[in-house]
Amino acid sequence: MASMTASRHYHHGDLRNALIAATDALLAERGPDSFSLREVARRADVSPAAPAHHFGDATGLLTAVATLAFEELTTALREADARGGTDAASRLREQGVAYVRFALRYPGRFRLMFRDGINKDDTALALRAQEAFMVLAEGVREAFGITPGQALSAGAWTALVALWSAVHGYAHLAIAGRFDRLGGVGRDAFVDATLQRAIGLVVDGVIDARPRGETPRPSASE
Questions:
Q1: Could you tell me the CATH superfamily of domain 66-208?
Q2: CA distances from 82 to 75, 140, 142, 146 (A)
Q3: Partner of 77 for a Cys bridge, out of 7, 33, 135, 191, CB 3.0 to 4.6 A?
Q4: What string of DSSP letters covers 103-141?
């Protein structure tokens, strides 16, 4: 993302990134429900018409920010997948942890990515969202021993939905403050203490429920 601090004037080529940066800052502070093009223009120190010139309307600007957010999530998931090494369960656990960490680091972006108010039919947005989803899908494919190009089995699809639902729900609970007082240690300490174990339980349960004959296949790095 571009710097959150907008300078007084922008060259034409910098204005788009300046508007995205201002949007990102506003989302982080107030969330998507308090978004306005006028406030974005004020923060970027440009005319109220400038956002519409580049993005058409509020939906266009929010869609651009959501698209970038999915790109960043995909990068975070791929890096986590690599950290997991050659063990399929470890790779899925790392992905789950990275998913929640992304939400905690960028709560405004994360809420935006999965809400109304963006153009979900936008080609670039749909592509970036699919890329993020496929990182997790490939992790499940490996855990179930399904070769690339082969359709996911019913059990693998169930596992994929269960894992995504679990980490997504954990992320939303965390950014909504539902963990802030649990254990008497505050949200960050609670998340640090429980996240790995909570995601691990889900991953282990999914893999333990794998039908007979479906075993992890070696990762591409082996």
A1: Tetracycline Repressor, domain 2 (1.10.357.10)
A2: 11, 14, 13, 19
A3: 135
A4: HHH-HHHHHHHTSTTS-TT-HHHHHHHHHHHHHHHHHHH
Nearest to residue 96, comparing CAs of 77, 71, 111, 72?
77
The fraction of the chain above a pLDDT of 90, given in percent, is 43
Under a CB-based contact definition with an 8 Å cutoff, are residues 27 and 110 in contact?
no
- As given in the structure block, the two tokens for residue 43 are 């923060």
Q: Half-sphere exposure (CA, 13 Å, Cβ side) for 96?
A: 30
Q: How far apart are CA 3 and CA 19, in angstroms?
A: 10
- 34-38, 203-207, 216-220: the lowest-pLDDT one: 216-220
Distances (CA, A) of 36 to 58, 62, 192: 7, 10, 35
CA distance 61 to 18: 12
Backbone angles phi, psi at 109, to 5 degrees: -60, -45
- All structural domains of the chain with their residue ranges: 1-56, 66-208
43 touches 6 (CB < 8 A): yes
DSSP assignment of 7-67: PS---HHHHHHHHHHHHHHHHHHH-GGG--HHHHHHHHTS-TTHHHHHHSSHHHHHHHHHH
pLDDT tens for 137-190 read 999 999 888 888 888 888 899 999 999 999 999 999 988 888 887 767 777 777
Tens digit of pLDDT for each residue in 192-207?
Answer: 778 888 899 989 888 8
